[in-house]
Design a protein that fits this description.
This protein is α+β, with helices and mostly antiparallel strands. The protein has helices at 110-116, 118-124, 132-144, and strands spanning 5-14, 25-31, 37-44, 52-58, 66-72, 79-85, 92-98. The protein folds into two domains: 5-98, Sandwich (Immunoglobulin-like); 110-144, no CATH class. The chain has three helices and seven strands; from the N terminus they run βββββββααα. A four-stranded antiparallel β-sheet has the order 3-2-5-6, with no helix packed on it. Strands 4-1-7 form a three-stranded mixed β-sheet, with no helix packed on it. A hairpin with a 6-residue loop joins β5 and β6. α1 (110-116) packs across α2. The chain is elongated and about 75 Å long.
Length: 151
C-alpha cells in the first residue's frame, strides 16, 4: 500500500450481532473529512463473505482523513460512523449493524430456558408476596395520575 493510501475494513452485522448474510444490495457511501463524496458503491452481499469488505481510500495527512462511512439497505435502518481516522500504517476497523425497520423480539421458549438457564427460569417463576400486588397497583396508579410515589 502506497503512503498516500489507507484502508478501512468494514464489518456488517445484523440485529442479532451475527455477520450480515441476507442477500441484499447495500448502498455504501464514503465521504472524506472535507465532506466530499469519495465513494458510492452498491455492494452485493453475495460478493463478500462473513459481512466484511475492505475499502482502499486516499490518505491526505490532514482533516480529510476523517472519513464518514454510511450504509443503507431496503427494509433496514441506515447505519454509519464518523470519524473514521485513517492512516497508511494500519487498516481502520469499522463495524456497522443493520437493524430491521420493523424489528421483533425473539425469545427462547420457557422449556428451553428451563433446560439451559435454570437460575433464570427460577427467577422468572417467582410470584409476588400476598398483598404485594395491591401495593404495586396503588403505586402505579399514583404515578399515572402524576403524583410521585411515597416510599
Amino acid at each position: 500500500m502506497a503512503s498516500d493510501e489507507a484502508q478501512i475494513h468494514l464489518s456488517i452485522y445484523d440485529g442479532a450481532r451475527r455477520p450480515f448474510t441476507e442477500r441484499k444490495n447495500l448502498l455504501l457511501r464514503v465521504r472524506t473529512g472535507a465532506t466530499t463524496e469519495f465513494l458510492t458503491r452498491t455492494l452485493d452481499t453475495k460478493s463478500f463473505e462473513f459481512g466484511e469488505v475492505t475499502l482502499d481510500v486516499k490518505f491526505f495527512d490532514n482533516f480529510g482523513d476523517n472519513y464518514t462511512v454510511l450504509l443503507t439497505a431496503d427494509d433496514y435502518r441506515d447505519a454509519g460512523f464518523f470519524p473514521v481516522k485513517v492512516s497508511p500504517n494500519t487498516p481502520q476497523e469499522v463495524s456497522l449493524m443493520l437493524v430491521p425497520k420493523d424489528p421483533s423480539f425473539q425469545f427462547d421458549s420457557f422449556d428451553t430456558i428451563v433446560a439451559n438457564q435454570p437460575n433464570i427460569a427460577k427467577f422468572l417463576s417467582l410470584t409476588p408476596q400476598p398483598g404485594a400486588r395491591k401495593t404495586i397497583t396503588l403505586r402505579a396508579s399514583k404515578i399515572i395520575r402524576g403524583k410521585p410515589p411515597a416510599y
